[in-house]
Every structure is written in C-alpha cells, then in structure tokens.
Design goal:
Cytochrome p450, single chain, alpha+beta, about 50% helix, three-stranded antiparallel beta sheet, binds 4-(1H-imidazol-1-yl)benzoic acid
C-alpha cells in the first residue's frame, strides 16, 4: 500500500474506475478525470491517474521513469506475487524487454503479415456470406468473435482450435490487470483450468511447422532465446492476439451500425476502411487502461510522485481528450485518427498491430462489398472486463448490395 499523498494541489477522485457501472459506460467518468486535472489521486486504490492525452502520451514514452517490470496492472510485482509467471515482453523493461521485443518484431514483420492476407480474405468471405444469407445476426459473436478465432490460431500455428479456451484465457488475463473485484474473482476461479490448457499449447510440439509459433521457436534454435522463453513468447501471442482484435472489430461494427451515415460514407469511399479502424480505436478503445510504476521520485505537472508508485493511464480518456481532438465524441471515419494511444506508444507500443489492422481491414472490406445497409435491431450489450472494452451482443440486420 502506498502512503497518503494528498498534497492539497492534487485533485482527488473518489469514484472507482473499475466499478461495473463505470466500466459499462466510462465516458462521463473520463471527462471528470480529464477536467479534474492533469494528474489525479484515485482515492479508492490510492494511486495516480492520468486522463489527458499529453500526459498519457508522455508517460508511455518515458519507460525509464514509468516502468513495466513491476507489472502493468494494479498489482505491484515487487510487493505481491503475480498470478502467473510474468510476461518477458509486456512485463519487462530494457534490456530484457529489448531482446524479446526484437524477436517479436521480426516474427510479426510486414513481410510475414502480408503473407496472411489471402487466407484471411478467404475466411472473411466465407463468414460474411453466411451471415448475409441470414439477414439478421449478432455482429459480436457471428463476426467479431468468429473471424479472429478462425484466422488467428491458424496464423500462430495452433493445431487444435478450442476457440473457447483462447477467449477465456484472454478474458482472465485482462481482468487480472484490474483490482480484486467481482470480475477478477470470477476470472481467477477458472484460471487454473484455462492456464493449464494454454501452457500446453505453448510447447513446440503443439504448434504447426508454419506460423508465428514455429517462427518464435526458430529463434530458440538460433540460440537467441531459451526454449522456455520461446514458449513464453507464444503465450504472449495467445494472450494478446485474440480478445484485443475481437473487441476491436466488435467496436468497429457497433460504431458503424450505430452511425448509419458513416456506413454510407464508407460505402461511397471504401479506401477509408483502414481509417475506420483507427477511428474506432480512438473512439471506443478496446484496451482502456494500463498501469506503470515509478522508478524514482518524479514531478508531473507540479505534482510529486514518489518512487515505486502505481500510475493508471486512461488510454481511452486520452483518445477523447478535447485538448487533442476536435469533436472527440463524434465517430467520424473521415478524421485523421492516427496518433491515438489505443496501441500504446513508445517501446511497448503494440507489436501486433499490423495483424490487428489486417484482420479489421479484411473483414470490413468483405462486408462492405456485399452489404448495402447495416442497422442495429436492438441495443447492443456491453461485455465487461477490467481492462478491455467490447460488446457481448450486437444484434443487426443487413441488406445485400
Ligand atoms: C493489448 C502482451 C500483450 C496486447 C503478454 C501480453 C498480454 C497482453 C498484451 C495487450 N496486449 N495488446 O502476456 O505478454
């Protein structure tokens, strides 16, 4: 526990950012946070919060002061035992991080990702054709879940696809970055069973000869990493690669269905499809928050932060900061949305973003080719998680083009 730091200058926010009601609809809370000040004291957890773009961006880009190796969730690994062996990518600082990162950069290179396109397109066309025949469907389960859970395990080289396990593991890992609330407890109850399954899938023998998994093990063969580290990087891929894209694609479909004029703009100009994804990530960021831990005493905007203290960065509040964005609460696929921090920034900036972008582009393009109108038939249902934002159900109807 951190000692009280309520400097009279520091705005205190009493609301719980991980309250289920706030997670379900966080936007008013984010506004409160940004307007309270550049640095706030979150009394509920006794740690620092950042909601403005400039400060979130600066913190992401100062890994020497705001480290990841004490965990990027609320738990401080220097004081509490992590729920699983820490990631050698996400939960490390240079120089260890640099070694893992350079391997992932190679494995997920533009050339490697480009090779996936035609398989992704075939899968997208099949899935989209099937839902269009039905006319009415659930865009969350039938598209946003169905597509990544088909193509991503193939790309990694998982031979047996138990999509349900992969989604459950992601849900556990992302809940585990948060506090011990009901979401955390429910997740942890199934962690032993699901973790056992995941660890088994991270073995060299469980992976096909082609795919990202085998590429990672090739670096172990070169002596750059150990066999165990290779398995840990496969675990990173499996943790990071599914829930994030499921939620990202779901948020894109929900935003388009809720804003039919944007769908029409996109139909008239399909080259906007990649921008749609950036605008989605800005507007409805699938990864809402990450933490850092201070490595030294540091002053931020006149506020003194002590050493070893947790800082909660609200990526999604930064992505709607009116100081950075015009009309931040409008979903506008024609705006310049790049520069958002939904993929992070700096040395931990999302190394898998090209795969995510490709998935979104291919699925939306397949839909765009075949669908004239996309409309909600009832209110979408939000999917609650301590870190991610997404939709459990998006009931829609479509008419064929
Ligand atoms: C959002 C790495 C990255 C990716 C890990 C790990 C877990 C999650 C993520 C989060 N992540 N995009 O375990 O190494």
């Amino acid at each position: 526990m951190v000692e009280a730091k309520t400097d009279s200058k520091v705005p205190v926010v009493d609301k719980d950012p991980f309250d289920l009601g706030i997670l379900a609809d966080p936007f008013d809370f984010h506004e409160e946070l940004r307007e309270a000040g550049p640095v706030v004291w979150l009394e509920q957890y006794r740690l620092w919060g950042l909601g403005r773009y400039e400060n979130v961006h600066a913190t992401l880009n100062d890994w020497e002061t705001f480290c990841s190796s004490a965990g990027v969730g609320i738990s401080n690994f220097r004081k509490e035992k992590p729920w699983r062996e820490p990631s050698i990518l996400l939960e490390k600082d240079p120089p260890e991080h640099t070694r893992a990162r350079s391997i992932m950069t190679k494995v997920l290179s533009p050339v490697a990702v480009r090779k996936l396109r035609s398989d992704f397109e075939t899968a997208a066309e099949k899935i989209v054709d099937e839902v269009i025949q039905r006319g009415e469907f659930d865009a969350a389960t039938d598209l946003a879940e169905a597509f990544p859970t088909k193509v991503f395990p193939d790309a990694v080289g998982l031979t047996a696809h138990e999509r349900e396990y992969l989604l459950r593991y992601g849900n556990i890992a992302f809940n585990a970055f948060g506090p011990r609330n009901s979401l955390f407890e429910a997740s942890m109850a199934e962690a032993p069973e699901v973790s056992e399954w995941i660890i088994d899938k991270c073995r060299r023998e469980a992976l096909s000869e082609h795919g990202f998994g085998a590429q990672i093990f090739a670096h172990a063969d070169q002596g750059e990493i150990t066999e165990h580290e290779a398995g840990m990087l496969v675990r990173s891929l499996l943790t990071a690669g599914l829930d994030t894209t499921v939620n990202g694609i779901g948020c894109a479909l929900r935003s388009l269905a809720a804003n039919p004029e944007q769908w029409q703009i996109l139909r008239n100009n399909p080259s906007l499809v990649r921008n749609v994804f950036d605008e989605t990530l800005r507007y409805d960021s699938p990864v809402q928050t990450f933490f850092r831990t201070t490595t030294r005493e540091v002053e931020v905007e006149g506020v003194k932060l002590g050493e070893g203290e947790k800082v909660l960065m609200f990526l999604s509040a930064a992505n709607r900061d009116p100081r950075r964005w015009e009309n931040p609460h409008d979903f506008d696929i024609q705006r310049k949305a790049t520069g958002h921090v939904a993929f992070g920034s700096g040395i931990h900036g999302c190394v898998g973003q090209m795969v995510a972008r490709l998935e979104a582009e291919v699925l939306l393009s397949a839909l765009l080719k075949r669908v004239k109108t996309l409309e909600l038939t009832s209110e979408p249902t939000v999917k609650l998680n301590n870190t991610t934002r997404g939709w459990a159900h998006i009931p829609v109807s479509v008419t064929a083009a």
